[in-house]
Amino acid sequence: MARSYLTELDLTPEESLAILADADRMKAQRKDGAHRTDLAGKHVAVYFEKPSVRTRISFTVGVHELGGQVVELTAGNTKLGHGEELEDFARVVSGYVHLFVARVFSQQSLRDMAATATIPVINALSDERHPCQALADVMAIREKVGRIEGVKFVYVGDGNNVAASTGLLAAALGADVYVCSPDGYRLPDGIMAEAQGLKGRLTQLTDPREVVKGADVLYTDTWISMGQEAEAEGRRKIFKDYRITEAMVAEAGPQAWVMHCLPAVREEEIEKSVMYGAQSAIWDQAENRLHAQKALMRFLMSGA
Length: 304
Known about the structure:
This protein is an alpha/beta fold. It folds into 2 domains: about 10-130 and about 290-300, Aspartate/ornithine carbamoyltransferase (Rossmann fold), CATH 3.40.50; about 135-285, Aspartate/ornithine carbamoyltransferase (Rossmann fold, 3-Layer(aba) Sandwich), CATH 3.40.50. It contains 11 helices and 9 strands. The strands form 2 sheets. Strands 7-6-5-8-9 form a 5-stranded parallel sheet, covered by helices on one side. Helix 1 crosses helix 5, helix 3 (about 85-95) packs across helix 4 (about 105-115) and helix 5 crosses helix 6.
């Protein structure tokens, strides 16, 4: 069966580090105008149940830069949910293309696809996990801090799919991860169970002020994700004290880098001055989606 990437822990720490090293090399080579042909003659299907900007662009450009071709699928141009089952869809698509990338609502949809697909399936985002974002995040941390092992990583906000994936990957590679969320919005118990036995630690807290001092990374995400618009006003009240501000960055110290997976609501979960400040790693983080995903595709297509 083909190797898939549905969660960040589907790779061993050694494999993740190898992919990140490859991403570093390709990022440097891209600046020199180097071209690769790893996906020459190959086709990659990208399927979107949700609208996308960074995921769509980074995967499309990444496939092209590796010499491959993209077939874009959506809920609107397929029969999924309107007469065709996920398992059948995945089996048929496997006969046409060499790699399947899916951005979906349900993590179970990805499991069902991978169960019958005969090609690698990549999770480009689900309600539970965002492992491609996690790779890009750790790549940015290594660039800015110089390492991942022993890094003090403080996440402030909703214990969502990004908090889960980046938190677990960083902990797997030896970071000390603190996820600070209000009651009722913490990481699921299942995520905390997966964190047991990792090289680093993943700890949940309610008050970020307990751990912000000395942080190497301060990370946040939007308070209102796609599909949560009806909860917007209530969430704004609940998360009002979970913002990355200039004062929080100052408390962390001059070594702290600020991260956000985007899109951001400026002056809500993060102050504009922080986003565009000297300690922001947000734009490197966003660019790294391209390089990390190229390295991931190379790894999966190698049959590793």
